[in-house]
Amino acid sequence: MKRITIVCSFLTLYGSLAWSQDYQQRFEQLGTMLPTPNTYRTASGSPGHEYWQQRADYQIKVTLDDAKQVISGSETITYTNNAPDVLGYLWVQLDQNMRDEDSDTYKARTTRIRDGLSAKSLQTISGDYKYDGGYKIDQVTDLDGNDLAYTINKTMMRVELPKTLGTGDKFSFKIAWSYNINDRMLVGGRSGYEFFPEDGNYVYTIAQWFPRMAVYDDVNGWQNKQFLGQGEFALPFGDYQVEITVPADHVVAATGTLNNPKEVLSKDTYQKFLDAKNASEPVIVVSEREAISKEINPVISSTSTWKFSAKNVRDFAFASSRKFIWDAQGVQIGDHRPLAMSFYPKEGNPLWEKHSTEAVVKTLQTYSKYTIDYPYPVAISVHAASIGMEYPMICFNFGRPEPDGTYTDQVKYNMISVIIHEVGHNFFPMIINSDERQWTWMDEGLNTFVQYRTQVEQYENFPSRRGPATSIVPYMKGDKSFIRPIMTNSEQILQFGNNAYGKPAAALSILRETVMGPELFDYAFKEYARRWAFKHPTPADFFRTMEDASAVDLDWFWRGWFYSTDHVDMGIDQVKWYRVKQSEETVEGQLTNEKKKAAGGGGNEGSTEPTDFEEVYSEFVVVPTDSQLYGEFLNRVDDNGIVEDHMDKNFYEITFSNDGGLVSPIIVEFTYKDGTTEVQKIPAEIWRLNEEKATKVFVTSKEVVNINLDPNKETADTEDENNVFPKRDVKSKFEKFKEREE
């Protein structure tokens, strides 16, 4: 008998080894899938003792031409090389060139003809916007005005250095440029202008507006991957001094601190601006009445220059319009009080006046709880049609009521949702500065997760679209040929919203609520934010930190959720109900006479079908413990005592199946004959020896009438028909028992 067991075990092992040559087991460590730790990025997921990053400081002067819709500017960039490498050239991003007539964005876009096309769709296909897009680079010089050699390759510009730049060296150079601002309604884009035909005015939301330094780091060297429009931006930190010249009646919202408020604001407006800093609710700084007055009587001939400064930011954006209403409120975060502000035209009211700044406040509070205290002086929400886009301290958000001011709950919740999301981007990736061009999920997914936490904690019954486990089920059960792993480069993602936003957010919710528990998860997540604030983390840094700070092995989780397209589909295949029979007999599964009679003389010996355990149970015999099982131990267990302790217990042997491939904790809810329930959680490691089947015995004091997997839908299980045993509802079983008792 032992010999047979050994042979069978050997064959099983051999088959397993041969099989694993072609298949990476789901509980195998990520190992070489992650980059090798070094002195820059450690195995713990923290920055190493030799971690470094580059720096780019900017002095910019820009003019917005409201008559021609043109941006023109000049900048001085001071680049600091902190790398242990010598640099012979610098790479500068020219993101506006994605709108150049020769743009690869247009060339690489797939299009098709349908039986009926709107005129706007036809224009998108032809690309005939009658719009001259892209940068006009006037000059690139050193500080003395000497021309620097440069090469423009689509959305990237290589600037040749007069001499190599060693570790610790700085180099300053100047760029002068201009471009035609895009009509967002016509051309689209993350920034641009919206024209309001009714009053003939514009709202400008300006971003990717100046040539910006690319990132040079220890992971990729120069991050000079072309901008095609989907993958976003990788940017170094620095300080900004920015002067923005606009029509004199415009209100400007921008990244950073307004340095000359007395010069650009009236005395009354300036006082309201000061009052807002200590207010506990939004203060109207510029009213709707004032904005409408400026719409009717615009200032055409004179300008004003708004001066802003921002420290340790990775980008700079601004918005400008004479149509802006402006409200503001201070919010206490840790030991300082940033200003939460909103800028919106009358077309946004009354929705924006009521909800925008309130949403900014709640976002700063919740995100600071889960990451680090918000460090910047302002957080701004700007109303812009049909867009949600983020920049340091400022974001552009949709949500517009009907012309008569009415709006549905859906419009309201969508607006609040996008404001939370875009303001939340201040943390991911503006502070915790991941590479958006490579890994969209690191900012969008993490941000969507904390957005969901904000909705849950700050609003009652908020209709969250992304975040909970159930929200990702339709995507996870979809056609795998249209699904790619989360760990896919931004430009190759299919189903962008589900892949980069929804799935990572749901995965993190499951990780927090079901796998790790809130206490361990929150500590590790906050530790990741603390470690990588104002630095450049990679996916490996996140994965490693979450494990390092929690002592939870999560390689199986990252492998399944982030590196595969598997889904969760667990089921109950079989349930067997046993009780102990105190007897010398050694035949397992022998039925008592009473139960045999109740079952019509039947039993379940040799049966492969699930047992209807309300009708019959099997008995098993407990025999004295063989002395060989004790090994060298001299003491013995109390066999009779153990039997006595278990005589009245019910033993339910449940066989679970994993049909979706994605291993997951098993959450089992038992409903007892007396109507009470109990939930037991089994860690995902139960699948580590067999990823398709797992059998476990559960011991209960009460008789079970119903078993349900994942009763609260915590695991994103895509099929729930196989989650219940027996295959009938609990109510009918209660009724049946009640009838018997009566």
What would you say about this model in short?
With 742 residues, the chain is of the alpha+beta class. The strands form 7 sheets. The protein has a 7-stranded mixed β-sheet with strand order 4-7-2-1-13-17-15.
Structural commentary:
The chain is an alpha+beta fold and 742 residues long. Helix content is 26%, strand content 26%. Strand 1 and strand 2 form a beta hairpin. Helix 7 packs across helix 9, helix 8 packs across helix 9 and helix 9 packs across helix 11.
Helix content: 25-40%
Shape: elongated
Mean pLDDT: 90
Number of contiguous helices: 17
Question: Which structural class fits the helix and strand makeup?
Answer: alpha+beta
Number of strands: 31
Tell me the Rg in angstroms. Answer: 32 Å
Percent range for β-strand residues: 25-35%
Give the distance, in angstroms, between the N- and C-terminal Cα atoms: 52 Å
Low confidence ranges = 1-23, 585-608, 730-734
**Lateral arrangement of strands in the main beta sheet:** 4-7-2-1-13-17-15
Query: Please, what is the oligomeric state?
Result: single chain
| Major β-sheet profile | 7 strands, mixed
Give the count of structural domains: 4
Give short descriptive properties of this protein:
single chain, 742 residues, alpha+beta, Immunoglobulin-like, 4 domains, six-stranded mixed beta sheet, 26% strand, disordered N terminus
